[in-house]
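Data availability excerpt. The first of two example chains:
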Amino acid sequence: MNVTIYHNPQCGTSRNTLELIRNTGVEPVIIEYLINPPSREELVDLIATMNIPVRELLRKKGTPYDELNLADPTLSDDSLIDFMIQHPILINRPIVVTEMGTKLCRPSEAVLDILSRSQLKEFNKEDGEKVIDQEGRRVSR
């Protein structure tokens, strides 16, 4: 199974998602997108593959979103993408790419929908929330 994660190691959701991937026995390709941001073409492709509106990928918290007035509804998708390329912190994370699809994994357990391998063991998020039980099954909420 080939898995790529656009990762920010400072983000708890991103760390939890990475550990859920590793809990399948797979070591993903890790792209620390703040250090190695995607090209414009790659970002456009990720958005298209996820089939989400461009605005859904914009991160507001802890970013220059307000200072750049990105809530302005007259800004085009191309303009928003340009801002994400100029300021990669505006790209919401983590984005995970597998053979089963590409997904913005918020919450982190959303990654389970695109992993073809089963979870190997129990998994709790950093905050203690149980996501996977002792038998490797997803815990219902």
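And the second chain:
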Amino acid sequence: MSKNGKTLKITLNSPVVLSFAVICFGAMILNICTGGKTNPLLFMTYHSSLKDPLTYLRFFTHVMGHSGWDHYIGNMAYILLLGPMLEERYRGARIVEVMAITALATSLVNYIFFWNVALCGASGIVFAFILLTSFTGFKKGEIPITVILVAVIFIGQQVYEGLFVNDNISNLSHIIGGIVGSVMGYILNRK
């Protein structure tokens, strides 16, 4: 009970973001239970045959798979922090659109240019959300300095890490996610 005698209740404030986090959790549990077999089958994108229908499914579902708990928790922390604010502002359908475009864009670039690299995880979506969040104060005819700073710092860090740090992280998917978030932020906020 609160001070004024009313009870506090838990609300479902962000159904799309929460559903995504739960689906990713389920994919993680499923991958653990199958000894790592479901990630390559359903939740990882790589250069597989275009005759395989799962190739097209994985273009979108790779964002639901994660390589381990640290990977999952790191991505979900950002998604659960930024996602509800974005979902409140843009509505669930737009957030699904941002997630789907990010998933498709990162998987296509990976499929076309990096034949020997498998990709999984929601970090592209994280960076799409980061850049999309910086557009929330956007007004017609103006570009907030925060958008410029976030873009420069973010892209600079990803380029640096992509060139000089060997950490098995797909910096390109971060950059693509950031580009998707920037473009969607501009489109959605110019109206």
